[in-house]
Design a protein that fits this description.
alpha/beta, three-stranded mixed beta sheet, 12 helices, 11 strands
């Protein structure tokens, strides 16, 4: 199965959803991965990948390492391998690896090519597609970064066999996000099918990638429609930041954030209590957390202002309109947001 992302300026590329094919490059290649992924899958990758010169950069595993220090480790590997502007980086891992490798590729010698070989469900259905790259800092998530599209994405669901249950659930949260925002029929299908079955997860990956490819093709730099993919993220990023990226996986924080956005949508009359419960039930089916204890509502709200989507001190929220559609707005009153935060 191949999905194409149509973009201008020769940025278009293909997403291949199948067993990993043999890849051969007549140029220098550095593979960026972490100890967990390399322990499980590096031998398999080596059997599929050949290059003029091939080297590996192993960086620490975890969202808390998605920072400037680790970025410099990747860049140092590029310099030690003497990469030039025709060289290639390979992101082999989850969303953290993909974001940092893509960002390193975008700034090394003012930009070189990279490809994505995502190994987690979250990165396969969302993070590897669309060219968003970046790192976190103390002010928030992905506040330093760039748009830098990969040359190709290779999605092989067999990597998911070694994925921990929580990581799987974190990826499912992003799949549910796509359905709530854009596709009511897909949401109903998710309610009636178990993604822990191999045949079903392949269908869900394909549907999610097709949805994201459609959105990115229309709005590559997030000037409009693409912002809808941040449903659950405005709240979720605050939760991640307040817990120092150590308590929740990204998809888990997004799951809680979706529940907060849904509560806001119900309060504003955009969503029924019944649909709010359907989303919560689907998240809980995969043990994705749906509750969070806010200790300081004012502090939580202030963190919204560091969100990349905010401008002129106006906070942009993505609220669902039932299931299958959503609204992007910066017109929601602070009192309404704080009122729903009191419920958490």
């Amino acid at each position: 199965m191949t999905v194409k992302i149509d973009l201008s300026n020769e940025n278009s590329y293909e997403i291949y959803i199948d067993k990993l094919q043999s890849l051969s490059f007549d140029r220098k290649v550095v593979v960026v991965t972490n100890p967990t992924i390399s322990g499980f899958h590096l031998d398999y990758l080596k059997s599929k990948l050949s290059a003029k010169e091939l080297s590996f950069c192993i960086i620490p595993d975890g969202e808390e390492y998605k920072n400037m220090q680790t970025l410099e480790e990747i860049l140092e590997s590029c310099f030690l391998a003497k990469l030039d502007r025709k060289s290639l980086l390979v992101a082999f891992g989850g969303g953290v690896i993909g974001d940092m490798t893509g960002f390193a590729a975008s700034i090394y010698q003012r930009g070189i090519d990279f490809i994505q070989i995502p190994t987690t469900l979250l990165s396969q259905v969302d993070a590897s597609v669309g060219g968003k790259t970046g790192i976190n800092n103390k002010f928030g998530k992905n506040l330093i970064g760039s748009f830098h599209q990969p040359k190709a994405v290779y999605i092989d669901s067999s990597f998911l066999k070694t994925l921990p249950k929580r990581e799987f659930g974190a990826g499912v949260a992003e799949i549910i996000k796509m359905a709530v925002c854009f596709n009511n029929e897909f949401f109903i299908w998710l309610e009636n099918n178990d993604l822990r079955e191999e045949k079903n997860i392949d269908i869900a990956i394909q549907k999610s990638v097709e949805t994201k490819a459609y959105v990115v093709s229309i709005d590559e730099k997030e000037q409009g429609l693409r912002a809808a993919l941040n449903y659950g993220h405005t709240f979720g990023h605050v939760i991640e930041n307040l817990t120092n990226y150590k308590t929740y996986l990204h998809g888990e924080a997004v799951g809680i954030g979706m529940c907060m956005a849904n509560a806001l949508a119900v309060k504003l009359g955009f969503m029924t209590k019944q649909d709010e419960q359907r989303v919560k039930n689907l998240l809980e089916k995969y043990d994705i957390p749906t509750t969070y204890k806010i200790t300081d509502i004012e502090d939580f709200y202030e963190h919204f202002l560091l969100d990349k989507k905010s401008s002129n001190s106006k906070i942009k929220f993505i609220v669902p309109l039932g299931i299958g559609d959503c609204k992007i707005t910066d017109e929601i009153k602070k009192d309404d947001v704080c009122e729903i935060l009191k419920g958490f």
